[in-house]
Design goal:
4-stranded antiparallel sheet; 18% strand; 36 helices; alpha+beta; 45% helix
Length: 933
């Protein structure tokens, strides 16, 4: 602890020409610095704003009356003033501060205590403030008065009269304890009724619970009793008695016997007696002459001893000490100067002593402790708890130690109480949990987090297993019930632990710990907590609980888990699995195809393929709903249909319908190979036809004797676009129809005549009898083909007659055309005199012109301009090319070519004039008026 005494500058007193050597009293309360001069001037300074000094003059009788003492309440609201004429006043400290700048000496806010002054031989030595409006005062005669300042004229009530004057009073309202010190007696009251105040105790004359006699002082002292809160110190002839009303010793037998005492002989030698004293939380300040001593209350040792010297380097005559109890600042003053006693690091001087005395809680409450000191106190406190077999409290203390390894602390708990003890495990858990609490939010403490959380997890598993073992061997029903309750509590605690410290856990480590301890329920709970869908599903699959597996899969909405477990779930619970798949809207069916194919293989091996192929059901649903583009999806669906078809015609028709609906989305070659491999003739023929492999389709039809499919194929619209190939295929089919293999078992005699008729009719004229003649063999008789030959010749005759009629018609048309040509050569147009050009509206005959059959006439140059401005690009380009050739060769005079181009069409009544549709039409006003009615 470092102690320094600093001089307080009072230059403002000198500036106001106040005489030095007249400081009578000093009080510092609630950071308000109040001191009074014997001349009656009182100064008040708010230490938060030390530059502002307020003052107040107490009216005194000039020359003889002096100010002797001031008593300020703890809140620095009121001040009691005493003069040597036994006059007493109450002054508001706030009035002094707020009255700054006003003319001093006016007596504003000064209230005389007239009723107290009227008391005979009233020499007040002690003032004990109850609150801002009431205080107890004691005189040298032993009279104790209660002063109430709530009225304009404060009242004065005599509470009691003792044998001699009291030195001081301290009261602990919370515990109902009070001590009053007289010159030779120390009295203690243990007030059971907490509502009783010191006033009522003294007024009712309640006898003290204990009292003890001491030798009175043989000399006069400024003050012999001081207190701070519940702590106090009292000077006797034998030494200084001090104690704390809040300490535990007052709960036991001899209350006053638990007080401590600093003997006078233990103090350093000095020619001076104790003049004043004050206390802090852990030290006693003693003033002996000009020397200030500070004594440690815990060790009774002097920790500071220094004499104060004045400006002339002579020992200062110190008047007294004072303390600001709210701010814990200490002061001393002489008649000339004020000094501040500054304590730095008081906690450093007492923390270890408090530990030695077992006051660990008080030691931890000290300020300015460093981490090592804090750890030491907590460790010693934990050790003390262990000696008292309070392992849980010890663990909480140990958890506060950061400088001691966790392993050593856990080892100490186990060695002192046995590692199999339930209390030991609980204490270890508390230690580890508290340690984890402190680092759980530190990003740089990941490894300790994992170690601690894993350790705690292992302890939980160990505790549960021990409880299970006890349940297996226990026969007492009541104990079994208790064990079940204990396990339930353990499980709830473990679940709470996992939820709270989930960010600190390493999933793989926790899995391994729980799995090694065979705690399946806890393992499943943890997997659900961390949303480890794979583990949950794997667990239920291992239990063959397909419902729970699918339920976990659906709740997770994890596509990866869907793909991972699709195979086993589809095989064992096909309908429910497919129903679950349909709820995964973002699932990729391509990744599910291997599982569906595995299922389909098993489905094909089942007896008679009982039940529905749910894999195809899913694909069909997906295709219908999402219209995917991946060919593999369609190929898979086709594969399932083709390899599962053939048992009846319905399946084949279903496949063909699906293939027609899917059009080109599947791999045609792949499906064709499948149909050929599994001998699905109808499907193969359909695919050949879709792929326009008509020759291969016909070959397959004839090879499989599927005449119906061959005829159906020949009706294909694409085949009708190629008459030659259509005819070739019909001839191939006709040859098959007319002649069958005699070696076939089911071959029957063919009605050649009817067959020929059917072929010609069904081919719709593609095949005629003449086309069939080359394929007839030598055994075909004329009787078989006579009817068709006659019909063919009749058709040929009709055709020739139609051709003859057409020739005559064309010759007639030729004659009409020649007649029209001759008439056109003689055609002419009559022009009226003065006719104008329809373009420039000038006289037509002035330049070369052309007249059209429609009656419009134009100058040649005007007509060329019109054509060049039109939208007939072909005609424009021809005229422009002619002009370019004419410009290059002046001799180029093929004017007939230009005229033929110009006379192609009229530029007014043909499409050349289409660009003028958007032009405005201007009408002469005179013409408009002609139409008015």
């Amino acid at each position: 602890m470092e102690v320094t005494i600093e001089h307080v500058q009072l230059d403002f007193v000198r500036d106001r020409q106040q005489r030095l050597g007249h400081i009578a009293s000093l009080n510092v309360c609630n950071d308000i610095f109040v001191f009074g001069l014997k001349t009656g001037q009182i100064y008040a300074i708010d230490l938060d704003v030390p530059s502002k000094v307020s003052s107040f003059n107490v009216p005194l009788v000039e020359g003889s009356e002096k100010l002797l003492a001031l008593w300020v309440d703890a809140g620095a609201s009121q001040c009691v003033v005493k003069t040597n004429f036994a006059k007493y006043y109450v002054l508001s400290v706030q009035d002094i501060i707020q009255g700054q700048g006003k003319t001093p000496g006016q007596g504003r806010g000064l209230v005389p205590l007239r009723k107290l002054v009227k008391q005979k031989h009233c020499d007040v030595r002690v003032v004990f403030w109850l609150d801002e409006t009431k205080f107890i005062c004691s005189t040298t005669k032993g009279d104790i008065f209660l002063i109430d300042m709530q009225t304009s004229d404060p009242s004065c009530t005599l509470l009691t009269n003792l044998d001699s004057a009291i030195d001081g009073l301290v009261y602990d309202r919370q515990r109902g304890r009070m001590i009053v010190a007289m010159s030779h007696t120390l009295m203690y009251w243990d007030i059971k009724d907490k509502d009783l105040s010191p006033v009522e105790v003294l007024q009712r004359g309640i006898p003290p619970t204990e009292q003890e006699k001491f030798e009175p002082l043989q000399y006069d002292s400024r003050r012999t009793f001081v207190f701070k809160g519940s702590k106090f110190a009292w000077v006797t002839d034998a030494g200084i008695i001090y104690g704390d009303l809040a300490q535990e010793g007052f709960d036991q037998g001899n209350k006053l016997g638990s007080l401590k005492m600093i003997l006078s002989m233990e103090l350093p030698d000095s020619p001076h007696h104790i003049k004043d004293l004050t206390i802090s939380d852990y030290h006693v300040f003693i003033l002996r002459g000009p020397t200030v001593l500070i004594i440690n209350q815990l060790s009774n040792k002097v920790v500071f001893n220094e004499t104060i010297y004045n400006d002339e380097n002579q020992p200062e005559k110190i008047v007294g000490l004072t303390v600001d109890q709210t701010q814990s600042t200490f002061w001393c003053f002489s008649s000339r100067n004020v000094y501040e006693i500054i304590l730095k690091g008081e906690s450093k001087a007492v923390w270890k002593l408090l530990c030695e005395q077992g006051e660990y809680g008080e030691a931890l409450a000290l300020k300015d402790l460093n981490s090592w000191e804090y750890d030491y106190i907590q460790y010693q406190r934990g050790t003390a708890f262990m000696k008292n077999s309070d392992l849980l409290s010890a663990a909480k203390c140990f958890s506060e130690c950061s400088s001691t390894s966790i392993g050593s602390m856990v080892l100490q708990l186990m060695q002192d109480s046995g590692d199999d003890s339930q209390d030991t495990t609980t204490a270890v858990q508390a230690l580890l949990t508290n340690k984890l609490d402190k680092i759980m939010h530190s990003r740089d403490r990941v490894v300790p987090q994992i170690l601690l959380s894993s350790w705690i997890t292992w302890n939980f598993m160990n505790q549960m297993n021990k409880k299970d073992e006890l349940m297996n061997t226990e026969k007492d029903q009541e104990k079994l019930t208790q064990l079940r309750d204990d396990i339930s509590i353990l499980k709830a605690d473990f679940q709470s632990f996992l939820k709270r410290y989930l960010p600190c856990l390493d999933n793989d480590t926790v899995y391994q710990i729980i799995l090694n301890q065979n705690r399946k329920a806890e393992l499943l709970y943890f997997a659900n907590l961390v949303n480890d869908v794979d583990y949950v599903i794997s667990y239920w699959i291992s239990q063959e609980n397909w419902y729970e597996s699918l339920k976990a899969l659906q709740s997770s909405s994890s596509d990866e888990s869907l793909y991972k477990y699709s195979n086993i779930l589809l095989i064992n619970a096909p309908e429910a699995t497919v129903a679950t798949w349909m709820k995964f809207k973002a699932a990729d069916p391509v990744k599910l195809i291997p599982s569906m194919l595995t299922y389909f293989t098993k489905y094909q091996k089942s007896v008679m393929n009982q039940g529905t192929n749910v894999a195809f059901t899913y694909l069909e649903w997906y295709i219908d709903k999402f219209k995917p583009k991946e060919p593999i999806i369609y190929n898979t669906a086709s594969y399932m249909l083709i390899t599962g078809a053939g048992r009846d015609a319905v399946d084949t028709d279903k496949v063909i319908d699906l293939l027609e609906k899917l059009e080109s989305k599947f791999d045609s070659h792949f499906v064709l190979r499948l149909s050929l491999k599994y001998k699905q003739t109808a499907i193969s023929i359909h695919l050949f036809t879709q792929m326009k492999f008509f020759k291969e389709a016909m070959d397959l039809c004839l090879a499989k004797n599927r005449i119906d499919l061959a005829k159906k194929m020949l009706t294909n619209e694409d085949l009708a676009q190629d008459p030659a190939e259509l005819k070739s295929l019909w001839l191939q089919l006709s040859k098959k129809l007319l002649y069958t293999d005699k070696n076939l078992e089911n071959s029957q005699a063919i009605d050649v005549k009817q067959t020929i008729r059917s072929i010609i009719q069904e081919s719709n004229g593609v095949i005629e009898i003449k086309d069939l003649l080359p394929i007839f063999d030598e055994f075909t008789t004329i009787a078989n083909i006579k009817d068709e030959l006659i019909k063919s010749l009749d058709d040929h005759s009709k055709s020739m007659q139609q051709i003859s009629q057409d020739i005559r018609k064309w010759l007639h048309m030729k004659d009409e055309m020649q007649t029209d040509i001759e008439k056109f050569r003689e055609r002419y147009q009559i022009l009226e005199p003065g006719v104008s050009c329809d373009s420039c509206h000038r006289i037509l005959q002035t330049r070369k012109f052309l007249v059209f059959p429609c009656g419009h006439c134009f100058h040649n140059d005007c007509l060329i301009k019109k054509i060049l401005l039109s939208n007939d690009f072909m005609l424009k380009s021809q005229i422009e090319n002619f002009q370019k050739r004419l410009a290059r060769d002046k001799k180029y005079g093929q004017l007939t070519e230009l005229e033929s181009l110009m006379t192609t069409k009229c530029c007014l009544c043909s499409d050349l004039n289409i660009n003028t549709l958007d032009n405005l039409v201007t009408v002469n006003q005179a013409d408009i008026e002609k139409w008015s009615l």
